[in-house]
């Protein structure tokens, strides 16, 4: 979903062109017909996500590609809240005759959580820890409801997903070679190979044991610091069934750049440390999934010739290379012990 960063900065996003403005006005007219109360205004946050101001209430309007996706999100968030996980948004049913359907898109109405000026950031150690603890609480709750969603939530296959990502990266090498020297590329590929072989040897780690519903996208913008300082978890569009390992791998990958890829500092997070005692998790930490993902994205979007958009990808690949190389060496040493 990525009902992301519902901040006042995001809310003030301006419409880029007349076409967007026309669509917004038409959508506003449609909403005025559908709701039993007066709609004052809608402001775009990002594609298919709007802040709606109405009489005595404010809420988020979020678009979904299918009715099934909308209903799954409604049901899953309701299940979380009913089981005691209150640190997320609720869905509302305001329309006279739901579902809301406009321009081949289904829309849901989500609770608006007033953001704090002190926003969540992976730059801060306390936020990294608090986000990790919230993710663990989410898993504790999603474990209770996983059986209800056996037939509607897909199983997550970590190694398969990464093999596909690596394959696409290989296909994109003719472009990537214009930006990154071959020695670094070869090193990245060797890390991926070592990681995938190790995961295959320890495949049981991702196939058995405790089953939860994964969040699937633990980017910083899916954590929201509310005005009352409570931290909330957002965006469940990428949920899948698996062991908790995959969410923690992704979380580690997200926070490590802010920790200078320190193996020792990662061990200081008790939640992650317990997983680092498993060899399969150590192997998986070596996979350069973020680098592969970002190169595949900029090539897919054809934005690699934009200096602004390619700069963070080059920093991730080249600028952090030496720190990451030390991290991989520490992983390999830990795998041998």
UniProtKB/TrEMBL annotation:
Q: Does the keyword Hydrolase apply?
A: no
Identify the keywords attached in UniProt to this record, alphabetized: Transferase
Which Gene Ontology CC terms are recorded? endospore-forming forespore
Q: Which organism does this sequence originate in? A: Cytobacillus oceanisediminis
What is this protein's record name?
A: Phosphotransferase family enzyme
> Organism's domain of life?
Bacteria
Keyword field contains Transferase: yes
Please report the stretch or stretches of sequence annotated as the Aminoglycoside phosphotransferase domain.
Answer: 153-250
What GO annotations for molecular function exist for this entry? transferase activity
